Amino acid sequence: MKKDDPFSDPDHTSDNAAVDTDVREQVGHETVEAEIKDLQRRLINIELALKKIAKDRYENCEKCGQSIPLARFKLVPEARFCVDCEKKLRK
Ligand SMILES: [Zn+2]
Prior knowledge:
It is built from 3 helices and no strands. By secondary structure, the chain is mainly α. It is rod-shaped and about 105 Å long.
């Protein structure tokens, strides 16, 4: 009787189909993780680029390149020039 029991078969646990499925799932999992890591790395680069753009765009006067004080941005968020250049441009 015991010989007919499929669970007594020593090859049952190392069934080929089951191993293939495990490997495929593992590879799929690793691919997704690699894609997530790649996306995260790209996101960090995008964030750095945006910060750099924002820094160049908003922290320095477009005319003389001097840094514009944060207080000025609180009053004029769209400020592109420092106070001195703004005054000169308005003359
Ligand atoms: Zn300026």
